[in-house]
Amino acid sequence: MCSSDRSVYALPLTSLCGFSAAVMGLCAGMTILLPGTEPGDILRNLQESRAAVCIGVPSTFTAMLRSGAEEYDLSSVRLWLSASRGMDPDDIKILRGLGCLRLGTLRLPAVFVEAYSAIESTTMLTLKPSFSCLDLPERCLGFPLPPNRIRAVRGDGGRTGRGEVGELAVKGPGTTPGFWNDLDRTFKIYRKGWMHTGIAVRRERLLHYLVDEG
């Protein structure tokens, strides 16, 4: 991305995700377009503005596809960013094919990225990218957004072994420092600097997979 790019934000600024995403885009010097959440308006804005980025949520992207996204010229979109996980893998492939990533003379499908967060964290704790050389499984959380760290832990706080189910623990500035006027709850979820989310995950090599979102 560069400062000359335009981004279509299909997110309300009144939401935490929409507001924080808009701030990040503005800090990068990008032009932000806010067409609302109606799929037809979003598609027209993408086509007319030749936007390079489109940010939304799974339900919005699904509605865009059902509203005839393939009838629009969306080849300018290099990046689709979903503010939460849960997109159908087939829909992701369609959206990637509608966009285009240009690398010199190469023309590749656009990149699709899903963000994941726990309730007590920011809206971008981990990122799960999908592009030509990478296709992660549906329930994979993707990669932690530095400097945040994640791990699967047992009841005693120790790390689980490969293939073992544990609780998702998070450490870094993406987590809440505590709950207002609720020290008991704060001490309950924080152990040795790690925030315990109550979400069941399984570790496989370097990546973690959801077992039960809780």
How would you describe the overall organization of this protein?
This protein has 214 residues and is an alpha/beta fold. The chain is 23% helix and 32% strand. Strands 1, 2, 3, 4, 7, 8, 9 and 10 form an 8-stranded mixed β-sheet that branches. Strands 11, 12, 13, 14 and 15 form a 5-stranded antiparallel β-sheet that branches. A two-stranded antiparallel sheet has the order 5-6. β5 (101-103) and β6 form a beta hairpin. α2 crosses α3. The model has no long low-confidence stretch (mean pLDDT 88).
Q: Report the helical percentage.
A: 10-25%
Number of helices: 5
Count of extended strands: 15
Mean pLDDT: 88
Q: Runs with pLDDT <50, length 5+?
A: none
What shape does the CA trace take? globular
Q: What fraction strand?
A: 25-35%
Sheet bearing the most strands, described? 8 strands, mixed
The secondary-structure class comes to: alpha/beta
User: What Rg is obtained from the alpha carbons, in whole angstroms?
Assistant: 19 Å
Q: What is the compact description of this entry?
A:
With 214 residues, the protein is an alpha/beta fold. The protein is built from 5 helices and 15 strands.
Per-chain topology:
Layout: E1 6-9, H1 16-27, E2 31-33, H2 39-49, E3 53-56, H3 58-66, E4 79-82, H4 89-98, E5 101-103, E6 106-108, E7 111-116, E8 126-131, E9 134-135, E10 143-144, E11 149-153, E12 165-171, H5 183-189, E13 190-191, E14 194-204, E15 207-212
Helix pairs in contact: 2-3
